[in-house]
């Protein structure tokens, strides 16, 4: 049986990925494209930039600004503490079992986010929480009388840091593993002190990894909704909660403004993930 | 000195992570006045709402795992075998669910599949369930893809496929009886991770209005005192179990794989 040349030239191999392509198109790409497109048309379907311009109201800008500060602060704290823990585990001269325990524990806690995390926090720092009572009964300190509030900026930061630290540990540990012993020895042979080695060799090499992970943690916190909703009952006006309320009940009274809101969120998480990818390629130049 | 600092860093981590865990455990035991008891757990377990929503989410997680494996394993196999040039593209696509916030994806679903659209999935309960399953498969895609891709990288696909073909096996047989058993450990770790993601998921289920465990958790958080802590303990234990099973699967594979 002879098959025609045209018949054979058709990309039949492509058929194998057709189910996946269909799945990705229908349930990932098209829904997102739909939202993005909706952000740039008005009620009658004509192209417009009005929706984007309408984002610049105090209500929406404040929500975004609060979200950005919240994500950035929690990412920064998560980065610092996670880095310290990872350094301790890899280079701190601790017994080998500590590393295994820390890594496993990080794997679990980085997946323990969302609603249950909020409950754990209420049970710990809520009005009759474990630590609240502990401080009151043992040390005579009433943190609520001192103005502490779980449904506040720092209350949320404390909760977010809980899933930021383990993520940082999981991502940065391989990077620290990549620091070669020879570099340190070479620096020491040339007369460098420990501080100089860190400032001029180790930190520049780790820099891209640190910055990249910071960007990833930022995006991670920016898109998180469930923890904040369970903790604040959708009261705190951060960008994802605003979008959540918009989807539920059109609180902005303009569906297309909702799409613009979603589009702005994609832009922000997209940029920070882009930073992560660029930084990771840079970091891999050293770690081979 | 260095070791002291290291222990200090670990100690800070331990305090930060154990206080909330101890806090939730202690709080969940305090339902009865003046003594520790398992009353909160009894109350949770006896709640028909808990049983229904938890059962629903477990079923959802299992369906998502099966669906995800059926979509991902043949695709990764095929791309690695026949279309290696597509790999960077696949990497990009499977990374997208981490880039696009889940709330935006589900917003797109509501717009794209509403009752007046060309594919009105949200019109019926079954259709919405299907949509939710697909959404969860998308959420789990980055993890499932990477797990399977790493698993397939470790075996010699070309040789195995040719050997199976020369013995007369078709594609289905190759996938089910040659490839899948070889990457079972990778698939299992992807599966347990999927389970951990799906079981307490809130945003998709709430916005698609399905009676899943996540929305029940939020409802309990607003209406009960001690039960939420008990629910958090249960969820934490489940997450822990999933991760332990992944480790176990990986360890098991190290013993069975022949040294090269």
TrEMBL record, chain A:
Annotated ABC transmembrane type-1 domain residues: 64-276
Membrane topology note: Multi-pass membrane protein
Transmembrane segments: 48-68, 75-98, 118-139, 151-176, 196-218, 225-244, 256-279
GO biological-process terms attached to the record: transmembrane transport
PROSITE patterns per record: ABC_TM1
Localization of this protein: Cell membrane
Keyword entries, A-Z: Cell membrane, Membrane, Transmembrane, Transmembrane helix, Transport
A GO term from the CC aspect: plasma membrane
Entry's family note: Belongs to the binding-protein-dependent transport system permease family. CysTW subfamily.
Protein name: Acriflavin resistance protein
Taxonomic lineage from the root: Bacteria, Pseudomonadati, Pseudomonadota, Alphaproteobacteria, Rhodobacterales
